Amino acid sequence: MPQIRMIKVSFMPQSFRPSDIPRLRAFLARQFPQHSELHNHLQNGGFRMVYPDIQFKFINDRPMIVGYGKGRQILAEVFHKVNYFELSHRQVGIPGKSIQMVEHNVSLPAPSNQQPE
């Protein structure tokens, strides 16, 4: 059975809202511009037109960043370098953060023998 390997980075910052997710992405893009996987912008002004290796989420009232493929290595590299966020000209402390490597089994549904109507 195929597996998907990913890394999950979650933060417990104070005063974080779902609407801050794009600001979090922009902050990390400014901090680590060399990693286009974080922001999907190319240096020539274009965009990376691929499924994102790094995705920003808000799950269970916490900001989370999930990395697949090359995104796993990038998140592992930058994880320890992020000690605060700057969101809308306000600095947000990070009282706690965690990183977790995860593997999920992937299965496809069995093909249906029914003919479309």
The CATH C-level name is Alpha Beta
User: What composes the largest sheet?
Assistant: 4 strands, antiparallel
How far apart lie the N and C ends? 32 Å
The ordered H/E elements are EHHEEHEEE
| Number of beta strands | 6
Category by helix and strand content: alpha+beta
Regions with little confidence, pLDDT below 50 for 5+ residues: none
Number of separate helices: 3
CATH architecture: 2-Layer Sandwich
CATH topology: Alpha-Beta Plaits
Q: Based on Cα principal axes, name the global outline.
A: globular
Description:
The chain has 117 residues and is α+β, with helices and mostly antiparallel strands. It has a single domain (3-105), classed as Alpha-Beta Plaits, CATH 3.30.70. Helix content is 21%, strand content 33%. It is built from 3 helices and 6 strands, in the order βααββαβββ. It has helices at 21-31, 36-39, 70-78; strands spanning 3-11, 54-59, 62-68, 84-87, 90-93, 97-105. The strands form 2 sheets. Strands 2-3-1-6 form a 4-stranded antiparallel beta sheet. A two-stranded antiparallel sheet has the order 4-5. Strand 2 (54-59) and strand 3 form a beta hairpin. The longest helix has 11 residues, at 21-31. The protein is globular. The model has no long low-confidence stretch (mean pLDDT 83).
